[in-house]
Amino acid sequence: MSRVALVTGGSRGIGAAISMALKEAGYTVAANYAGNDEAAAKFTAETGIKTYKWSVADYDACAAGIAQVEADLGPVDVLVNNAGITRDAPFHKMTREQWDQVIGTNLNGIFNMTHPLWNGMRDRKFGRIINISSINGQKGQFAQANYSAAKAGDIGFTKALAQEGARAGITVNAICPGYIATEMVMAVPEKVRESIIATIPVGRLGDVTDIARCVVFLAADSAGFITGATITANGGQYMT
Ligand SMILES: NC(=O)c1ccc[n+]([C@@H]2O[C@H](COP(=O)([O-])OP(=O)(O)OC[C@H]3O[C@@H](n4cnc5c(N)ncnc54)[C@H](OP(=O)(O)O)[C@@H]3O)[C@@H](O)[C@H]2O)c1
């Protein structure tokens, strides 16, 4: 029986690449998404990977969604907390709603997804939790107090939970992508994009596969000695 992996926000962008790479590596994959039914249907048609719709910001919806995935595919061995949003504004213009939405999805979301799965992983003495944080959680970013706070919180969560999971065969790790050539980044004006690339020592944006390969590495059964780690994949833009 192949191991089961659940990827949040797994139907688009970095998450889609993660879902496909895990499938390629032999996992049975479930991809969660929030609301873009069209993209999810296209993704399933192209890859054969099942998609499941719920918001990671809603604890009860996560518990119900996970129960459905486990009924369909079996116990989840690998959880990739990838779903994330931005609601950027300089702090003097940031609204309470922008703050709450980003914390609700990017920080509360990883609690909401990990908590319902935790005891099952403990009982089975195996689990892989991989949290997709960000370079901006490491260094901070103008107009992203909400996003940087949530992404830094993801790293703290990772380090704390890694200590609790260690004796139960559960590893908990974080990945911090730099600027990746997703639709969002490619939509910014070329001049802005060029100015971003100028700050990246390797001289290019990251590709979604640069992040997916880190996930496959951390998800492996053989990666059991790596826990509480933060893998930085940013082309050398920020070195911690
Ligand atoms: N792109 C970058 O350069 C970059 C850099 C550093 C870190 N990251 C992080 O990497 C992750 C993926 O980013 P991306 O650029 O690939 O994002 P993206 O292309 O915007 O895709 C986001 C995915 O997350 C899903 N999603 C959003 N809110 C959700 C919610 N409440 N519940 C469930 N799913 C939700 C979306 O679902 P729908 O399709 O239904 O909308 C979509 O599948 C994020 O955590 C982001 O912060 C990205």
UniProtKB/TrEMBL annotation:
The keyword Protein transport does not apply. It comes from the Bacteria. The lineage of its organism: Bacteria, Pseudomonadati, Pseudomonadota, Alphaproteobacteria, Rhodobacterales. The keyword Chloroplast does not apply. It comes from Rhodobacter viridis. Belongs to the short-chain dehydrogenases/reductases (SDR) family. One of its GO terms (molecular function) is acetoacetyl-CoA reductase activity. SMART domains: PKS_KR (SM00822). GO terms for biological process: monocarboxylic acid metabolic process; poly-hydroxybutyrate biosynthetic process. GO terms for cellular component: cytoplasm. Residues 3-178 form the Ketoreductase domain. This is 3-oxoacyl-[acyl-carrier-protein] reductase /acetoacetyl-CoA reductase. Keywords: Oxidoreductase.
